[in-house]
Design brief:
There is one protein chain. By secondary structure, the protein is α+β, with helices and mostly antiparallel strands. It is built from 6 helices and 13 strands. Strands 1-12-2-8-9-13 form a 6-stranded mixed β-sheet. Strands 4-5-6 form a 3-stranded antiparallel β-sheet, covered by helices on one side. The protein has a two-stranded antiparallel ribbon with strand order 3-7. The protein is globular. The model has no long low-confidence stretch (mean pLDDT 91). Pfam families: F420_ligase.
Amino acid sequence: MEITLIGVEGMPLVGEGDDIACLIINALRGTGEDLLDGDIIVIAETVVSKAEGNIIDLEGIEPSSRALDMAKRTGKDPSLVEAILGESSEIIRIGHDFIVSETRHGFVCANAGIDESNVDDGLATPLPVNPDGSAERILKTLKEATGRELAVIISDTQGRPFREGAVGVAVGVAGLSPLWDRKGETDLYGRSLQTTRVAVADELAAAASLVMGQADEGVPAVIIRGYPWGHLRSSGGIKPLLRPREMDAFRD
């Protein structure tokens, strides 16, 4: 198997109302590249939120008493803390310079996924309101424009418990199942797999993150070509990747 990662270069800075799918198609045309059947398009959540007008004006936020208290305990800006509270369904852990929460989508991550990078000073981008819906809309436009069989992943960069560093993860998907259950298949020694499930969407998002970068690379979308996902066609969204609360062994 050979998998190719193609950064979509030449996309302009994204603003509210922009059509992400059209920006991707135009950028690819500028480089002489075309989408092919089986391509998976991974898109950074920040540009999706910006296109949807999902921007937080931190300077316009009046922090609550709870936010002020948490700001003292964490050392974070009170306005940012208030924004985190607004995007969270539950605050799980706080400490010096960190807040771990569960977002309204069900993701457990730092700062409720709010990002202050790649936006103007005083602004921040939360995760898209409905990442699966965003992925579906982008996929629909891409398929109509190209006639190709495609899939879309909306990605974010998140830290992990018990390990240093951040990696790309999927927060929204369209066209493919994010989880591959391989139970019942056999290993190299003929033994039947009992519990193996592969977080395919996360692995693809992590691979794309290597091309996107985290600073001024200016590559908000990546084409993954060559990964065989025909057996994973689905429209079920990201939910299969989220561990149910009753199966969470790490939260109190």
